[in-house]
Design the sequence.
């Protein structure tokens, strides 16, 4: 197997340094190197010869050095001791090749899902690497993936779930459920996922299918029947509100809203949120029964 080597020389002074290496080794260019410690933070990028130096941002102390490059497993060097005026040579660092997981994301009816986020997670739920599908729905994950079993997830939206916030209404404080940050890429779908076995140095091909979402739509008007624009409307599970199911929409100029992502079959509480200039009671929410793939 071809060995890919990054040659590392860390310079903690203004002294320049040179490096010689054998022709049998293959340097990695464009790798990011970060030195983080108790007396500073320094960064650098390897050149075409796999060489770098850090001259700014760090002083005498103990550092952890992380080397990362696309297509490889990141390397972490700990307890690197640096003294004032010292040129610290870390020697040759070999990066192992990453496994590659590539494939395509489709909707339930077989259409290609373009420009949506895709992540790969380990068995503990930690995100290892992420990317977006291209215009043809294809994706490629090729960094920091060790040999093992993973879950690949594709999202028609991004959503951080709901959280309880305390608001002041007159002399009364209330706790309400409010949406965190979110973004829609494709309406009408929930996330899709598949399990995959990956092996370093090899490529595996998979297909991920998005799940269908239920859809809640409606209109917000004032007492005179006039549409109210710009109102956030949220839908969250009637039970287990702490889950990440549920989503939100915003009324248009006709007062119409459409909540069309992340609504599996179930019962949801639906309510406007902070309608500016209007009296609103969070306790007046409506319960709606949602079925996947249908609009209510």
Sequence:
């Amino acid at each position: 197997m071809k060995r890919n080597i990054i040659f590392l020389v860390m310079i903690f002074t203004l002294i320049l340094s040179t490096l010689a290496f054998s022709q049998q080794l293959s340097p990695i260019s464009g790798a990011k190197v970060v030195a983080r410690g108790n007396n500073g933070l320094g960064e650098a990028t390897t050149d075409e010869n796999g060489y770098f130096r850090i001259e700014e941002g760090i002083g005498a102390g103990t550092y952890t050095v992380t080397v990362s490059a696309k297509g490889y497993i990141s390397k972490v060097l700990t307890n690197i001791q640096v003294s004032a005026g010292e040129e610290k040579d870390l020697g040759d660092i070999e990066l192992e090749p990453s496994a590659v997981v590539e494939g395509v994301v489709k909707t339930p009816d077989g259409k290609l899902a373009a420009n949506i986020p895709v992540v790969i997670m380990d068995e503990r739920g930690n995100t290892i690497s992420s990317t977006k599908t291209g215009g043809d729905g294809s994706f490629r994950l090729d960094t920091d993936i060790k040999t093992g079993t993973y879950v690949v997830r594709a999202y028609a939206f991004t959503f951080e779930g709901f959280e309880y916030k305390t608001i002041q209404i007159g002399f009364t404080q209330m706790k309400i459920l409010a949406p965190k940050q979110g973004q829609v890429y494709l309406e009408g779908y929930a996330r899709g996922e598949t399990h995959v076995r990956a092996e370093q140095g090899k490529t595996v091909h998979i297909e991920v299918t998005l799940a269908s979402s239920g859809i809640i739509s409606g209109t917000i008007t004032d007492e005179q029947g006039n549409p109210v624009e710009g109102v956030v409307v949220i839908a969250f599970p009637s039970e287990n509100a702490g889950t990440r199911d549920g989503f939100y929409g915003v009324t248009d100029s006709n007062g119409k809203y459409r909540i069309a992502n992340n609504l599996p079959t179930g019962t949801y509480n639906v309510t406007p949120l902070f309608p500016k200039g209007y009296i609103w009671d969070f306790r007046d929410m409506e319960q709606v029964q949602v079925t996947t793939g249908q609009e209510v």
